[in-house]
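Holo prediction — adenosine monophosphate.
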Amino acid sequence: MSILVVGSVAFDTVETPSGKRERALGGSATFFSFSASFFHPVNLVAVVGEDFPKENFGLLSSHGIDTRGLKVLPGKTFHWQGSYSNDMNEATTHSTCLNVFEQFRPEIIEEYRGSEYVFLANIDPDLQMEVLRQIKKPKLVACDTMNFWIEGKREALLRLFKMVDIVVLNEGEARQLTGQPNLMRAARMIRNWGPEQVVIKKGEHGALLFGADSVFISPAYPMETIVDPTGAGDTFAGGFMGYLAREGKADWKTMRRAVVYGSVMASFNVEDFSLDRMKTLSKPEINARYREFVEFAHFA
Ligand code: AMP
């Protein structure tokens, strides 16, 4: 059974200390799908404008991503502009042009309604909820969000949290959402709003998984140069959900491994702009880096 993802498919204009890319392929659902598809087939639900190049459909399909749910509407594709300075963990947003997302009403095609694994990537929480209502009986639902929606749609977001199993967000978002500087307390607050598990990503410092009475700490891959961190969070989520879907279970041990696979995938994505590194990535490279993680995080 495929993973269903809804989120943004975008053009990103990004500037980092390594350079600048204009209108490169990006978006939360794009990064998620590409990463998850290394583990399991993915059904993509999103919208683009008429300016979206046809080759991008081919690129996604060639990677096992079903694009029947990727709608083309009259108008322009979502465009995000951001930059990173020395702190690569935090993007500064310069503009968010929702464009075709403003009139997007997701309709899930019949073939996708039975999806067991659902990832609600970063988009308007009302749209995330609209998608979830159309899925018959999901086994596992996870969601992400960002400061833009925490500021503008907090109530909708909290309603959504009641309907999901896992919330995945970065440390800045966890603090902004809860008003709690301490991440243990922030995670407990979020879990009290509904989700069974919370994953808090800490960029170059790894990720934390919180369950009912356990915490798991995953390191990040030690890297000297991060070319572009855009999409790292979505790529992490893709590895995490992709692994869970492939294994077909979500017990604590499997979740811990899934967090490490998420970290592995994110570490590749930041090696280049847009999807450039992911396009050349191979499964043996993923497995080799996973073994490195096991090696450098192991102690008796
Ligand atoms: P991240 O994984 O957090 O680095 O996500 C980066 C991606 O999020 C970029 O490719 C953007 O196109 C996308 N994005 C930025 N702002 C928004 C937004 N408000 N809603 C949906 N997607 C967004």
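READOUT: The chain has a mean pLDDT of 95.
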